[in-house]
């Protein structure tokens, strides 16, 4: 896999202990099954994992370190829940590297736009030390992305990518110009919550989860969209969730999907190879806009961004 041109990313937010797995995804998956999924990821040439210190209540990063990080790519984050303090990023990254049993991470993201310049300057130091191979930003607006690019450009470092929420029903970053800006500047756009926490799946398969119970009142509004997704899935001989993934791939967006089981990795790898027709894309967008359903929201983490002092 070319890290500068990945086709998909495996999320690890639901990796962890039994209590966490059940709370987030409604079920626990044993470590040996996750290891099988990682083997499939290598076979499918998508051995790229997105992590953060809080995933699995802190267990996800330790798990992947124990499983072995040879021949895989690691994406990690620094989440600034407080204002910048000298050494804060370094301290966090060193913990990450200890968990990963590695000397570097392939991509390191500034996870929220708090004190952007100060945090990025410390990330740049770590980049120059070889502890970070590529730098990205996550949950940033278009203007915040432009600021980040200017800071990195001044240091002679390219902005690798932007990692924001994007799905069929959440295309705000496309409508406000961020997606186009990324394409114009050769910056990758990674999309998280592509399946909207399990809402953009096959409604005919009755599977309960805490997330579905939380958003069950909104499911009725998505009935028309589900019908279109089912038709598109049948036409391309794929599953309904794969339509949501293929939608992103057709847009040139890199989908991030939580995978704990081998078949989920296979589904992800198959879906990103499918390109929907212009007519299918238009119809999906029209029906999604008509539904006007907000599950996660494009800027759900804005409340955690600290105002400039």
Low-confidence runs (pLDDT<50, min 5 residues)?
Answer: none
Tell me the count of domains: 1
Mean of the pLDDT scores?
A: 93
What sort of overall outline do the alpha carbons produce when their principal axes are compared? globular
Q: What's the arrangement of strands in the largest beta sheet?
A: 1-2-3-4-5-6-7-8
Strand content: 5-15%
Please identify the structural class as seen in this structure. Answer: alpha/beta
Order of helices and strands: EHHEHEHEHEHEHHEHHHHEHH
Biggest sheet statistics: 8 strands, parallel, barrel
Radius of gyration from the alpha-carbon trace, in angstroms: 19 Å
Count the strands? 8
The CATH architecture can be named as Alpha-Beta Barrel
Query: Helical stretch count?
Result: 14
**Helix proportion:** 40-55%
CATH class membership: Alpha Beta
Quote the distance from N terminus to C terminus: 42 Å
CATH superfamily: NADP-dependent oxidoreductase domain
Which fold name corresponds to the CATH topology?
TIM Barrel
Walk me through this protein's architecture.
This protein has one domain: Alpha-Beta Barrel (TIM Barrel), CATH 3.20.20.100. 45% of the residues lie in helices and 14% in strands. The protein is built from 14 helices and 8 strands. Strands 1-2-3-4-5-6-7-8 form an 8-stranded parallel beta barrel, surrounded by 6 helices. It is globular, with a radius of gyration of 19 Å.
